[in-house]
């Protein structure tokens, strides 16, 4: 009765009712209108600390250690504590623990002809990616792989009768395997059950393998909650299978001790409750994110989202552009699962915020992407997108098509799509690299080549899209000019002339805010 045991293990979590306090309007005010401190004595490092802390979220671990003021830290902690308890997230997250280790047989169902055939890739490359996914997981190893023809990879009957028998024989003859990974987006629960019965081992699809990877790499509450949400369909499928087994034994439709509910109904209700709980916690996080976004906008720092296929070098590029030593690029699929924000400078010394995002993958089920929609929302709200491509990868064209498809499904605004900068990364790995797409920028993030050209291109687009410029303004320190600038623009530097009671202030300011400034102080 594993199903019943699992249901019972959920109960404590679902029954625990904790009063959550949403972000209050006073917290909002505090974040948006916090007066600048240490203005008179402002030196560039303090200003950097101020601006960094102003745009920092709890998730942006990488901005830590940048000299954040203690008082701001406390306020941040207070505000972050408001939405959901760590232990509660851990409980939700732990419920569906991943398998410890597996020796895996990978099957790639290949469509050789017809409308379902993939034209930009080959069965061998898709198999290589599937193997890469499995090997990303610690203690999971591929022991055998097989490409098997099919006409209907998305149907319940993936393989024809003869092929299925051949496959079953091969799997049964392979010693020591503990799992089979069928490289399709998502298996029907009934197919999963049928395969498991025929092969006598656990069966995974892309959805479940990618989820395992996500799970192993998740660090923050938000990532953990998003993963727990993405697991709900898996739990539903499992439930269906376990219920089918119970029904065969005549147990699933019996009422539980006077409750008026059958075991199936109890399980379904608990799953619904679990889903609602996760969604509500994520909604609170979404509100917090949107608050941080408006705070960043308010501070007038333009944001640049760096996106692309997984492992293309996004994190390495942001590290190279910002010098942020906290960033840890890894040769691993889905190393980045949390959106983090990092400040960097453009040629005119304008500070921009680079947003590191979760990588894309082909045939990633929509539901999985949907679960990460709160994180991906940052992309929609940025001022500019930079699409990083691993130009050394044999599937680079297919990867680009997939990234563009996901962006289209996410309904990214046209203005962002048309101004998007495409970067060809890892050119150091390509012999005699030649740029065949004139609008793209060739770089090597690892060897820090081509970055000046990229910074200039980013600045040009930012100026075009936001109308923001870097200006040096002379301010009278006895007037409220400087504090106004702190509130309405992004102050980059203050050079104080103590004898004259004035300062030269470098700011990033929009045309509209500059107009207001002139009207107020120089009119
Ligand atoms: N040779 C070479 N390797 C690079 C370059 N850029 C990144 N890499 C390597 O590619 C691997 C992945 O880099 P990341 O920056 O973690 O890639 P990512 O796109 O952030 O990956 P995910 O967060 O997993 O989606 C690491 O081993 C990097 O060192 C480059 O320009 N040249
Ligand atoms: Mg990354």
Distance between the first and last residues' Cα: 79 Å
Number of strands: 13
Bound molecules: guanosine-5'-triphosphate, magnesium ion
Overall 3D form:
elongated
Please tell me the overall pLDDT.
Answer: 75
| Main CATH class of the domain at 300-465 | Alpha Beta
Description:
The protein is of the alpha/beta class and 523 residues long. Among the domains are: 113 residues, GTPase HflX, N-terminal domain (Rossmann fold, 3-Layer(aba) Sandwich), CATH 3.40.50; 166 residues, Rossmann fold; 56 residues, Alpha-Beta Plaits, CATH 3.30.70. Helices cover 47% and strands 16% of the residues. The chain contains 20 helices and 13 strands. Strands 6-7-5-8-9-10 form a 6-stranded mixed sheet, sandwiched between helices. Strands 2-1-3-4 form a 4-stranded parallel sheet, sandwiched between helices. β12 and β13 form a beta hairpin. The longest helix is centred in the middle third of the chain and has 36 residues. The protein binds guanosine-5'-triphosphate and magnesium ion. Guanosine-5'-triphosphate binds next to α13. Magnesium ion (MG) binds next to α13.
